[in-house]
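Issue: ligand-bound run for adenosine-5'-diphosphate - logging full I/O for the record.

Environment: standard queue, default settings, no custom constraints.

Inputs:
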Amino acid sequence: MKPAIYPGSFDPITNGHLDLIQRSLAVFEKVVVAIAANPGKEPLFTVEERVALAKECTGGMERVEVVSFPDLLVDFCENAGITVVIRGLRAVSDFEYELQMNQMNRKLNNSIETVFMMPSEEYTFLSSGIIKEVASFGGNISCLVPPPVADALKIKFDGRK
Ligand code: ADP
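Outputs:
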């Protein structure tokens, strides 16, 4: 079994991400959750907040490490000596972007392989983006994110728990 890197924005981490981490632990020796410090999107949570939430939510999981990375994923993988990248596929709509990323990463470093995993069907519609949208209008997202994330969203949007 090899170690693997699970990269993303994790803005914030959801039950869908956690489902994928659990599945990956059954296949890989160790899972490094790698949080992009500067994702293309404008994040709601700072990188420090995203790392702290991911650490809190994976705190009980052995063989999981949470880190942030500053720039290119392939450079981070090379420095960490890890050649497997995990990405999630929820629906056909994820495919095109993931294909493009995969091909680009191969051009940059052909020794890195991406492995795609699918979540439990209850999380196929779940994204950090939809969580933030619903939470911003005061909707109840507590069954879709871990409790520390639900609290952090309340604080971001209402200024209180
Ligand atoms: P990015 O900003 O790179 O899309 P995200 O933080 O949104 O990163 O997600 C990281 C990875 O986790 C992506 O491969 C994404 O497809 C996957 N992912 C996110 N939510 C889910 C979910 N509900 N089920 C399965 N995979 C998911």
